[in-house]
User: Which sequence fits this backbone?
DNA sequence: GCGACAG
DNA sequence: ATCTTGTCGC
């Protein structure tokens, strides 16, 4: 993907771009039927980041294919600015897929972010496609622990705004922090995450991407 | 100033 | 994210 802007190299350059992209996020109903769903995650090898993307049939959850990309890390990890560190690799991995997914589940937040532009929303705006933020821990917001049964959820509220939900994808297991990324509503995001979560805590596309990233990390040539 | 803080 | 083995529990 040819980015419509120069990639930020520091916080000063990232801030204005983040504000601009945040204004483009849309929490609207899914634009159409979902036939395929992708999952993305990353791992680090020295000063390089390896991103893995998976593609599944949404209806049957049948695995279709996977792809990956390796990039040099050019931005530090700063809470609230994760996109500028990981998005380049994620976009590259997604481009390697044979066809663009109808929905992307991202390991990280959607609008449950200080400025409403977590990495899932960031990618959604750049891709112009529906995305969901599926994080393993909280970045912002207050909530009450959801009930222990699978499917139970409580709202995640930040500064008086409902920015996502704390969802129990498996009974008795730590919940996930789900939030709309772009072009999707919270209820649709919750339904999609539950639909994709059958046996493990993470939605299948995200879980397999996670496993693949870890595998690539082990097999990649030692950087030095 | 202090504490919080996706991956 | 990553450093790190075994171990408790279903």
Assistant:
């Amino acid at each position: 993907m040819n980015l419509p802007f120069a990639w930020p190299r520091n916080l000063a350059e990232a801030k204005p771009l983040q504000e601009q992209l945040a204004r483009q996020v849309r929490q609207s109903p899914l634009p159409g039927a979902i036939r395929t769903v992708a999952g993305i995650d990353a791992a680090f090898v020295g000063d390089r980041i390896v991103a893995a993307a998976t593609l599944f049939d949404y209806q049957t959850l049948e695995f279709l294919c996977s792809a990956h990309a390796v990039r040099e890390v050019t931005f530090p990890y700063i809470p609230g600015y994760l996109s500028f560190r990981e998005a380049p690799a994620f976009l590259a991995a997604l481009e390697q897929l044979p066809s663009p997914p109808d929905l992307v589940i991202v390991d990280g937040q959607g609008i449950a972010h200080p400025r409403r532009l977590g990495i899932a929303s960031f990618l959604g705006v750049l891709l112009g496609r529906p995305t969901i933020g599926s994080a393993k821990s909280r970045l912002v917001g207050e909530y009450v622990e959801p009930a222990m049964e699978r499917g139970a959820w409580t709202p995640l509220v930040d500064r008086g705004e409902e920015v996502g939900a704390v969802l129990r994808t498996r009974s008795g297991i730590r919940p996930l922090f789900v939030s709309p990324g772009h072009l999707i509503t919270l209820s649709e995001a919750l339904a999609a995450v539950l639909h994709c979560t059958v046996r493990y805590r993470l939605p299948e596309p995200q879980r397999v991407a996670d496993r693949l990233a870890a595998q690539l990390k082990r097999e990649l040539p030692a950087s030095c």
The mean pLDDT of chain A is 96. Chain A has one domain: 31-219.
